[in-house]
Amino acid sequence: MNPPMPAAREGGRARPRLLVEALSIANDSGLGKLARMYVDALGVLQDVAEIHLILPFESKWRPGYACVVHRERAKPLRVWVQLWFPLLITKVRPQAVLCLGQTLPSWRPRAKYILSIPDIGPVERMGLEMSSHEAYNRRWLSRMPGKADLILTISKTMRGRMRDLLGLPESKIRVVSPIASGTANESKGVPSLHNANLPQQPYFLALGNVEPRKNYPGLIKAYAELKRRRPD
Q: Alpha-carbon distance 116 to 10, whole Å?
């Protein structure tokens, strides 16, 4: 690891290297779990960066490394991104801001802005027709990513979809896999497919939360048609 770098100074005071908006960790959906994994992974930076975390007031969760924590009470999304979040950025004056939800601020005080987007399904054709996401979230996904300095996503496929649907250059999108491999997964409760008690016959595995745009009825109909054509 490179030796620690001195924090940038402005007006004689050091500027923190990174401010992480992690309010979504209180969400028990995939987004919340992904946010917790991202924040845990930032622990490798503790020797070279001063990290400030914005965490929900009601959540007891915190990472296992030293950092500065800002506890925020729940606010309407628009109030947060248009007013409170920018004011907090102005107060902390970080060099970079990492947003782990749909929280890129409407006006952005001077800093580099990094945005995590694990899924852009709501803006795809089927997503528009079947998504349970409200229209505000879909408009946000269509307009805001281009205003960030860097986008983080979880697969090359999603990077390609952002390129095609949002017109983002691939050089602006970094693929980050926040899940470790091997025994680290098993120690944190992530099942290993090699050890799981899985059926020995061919089977279908569908992964996703339960909402209309996942189109599980279509998957079941497709399986029924396959069984009709291939009874074996």
A: 28
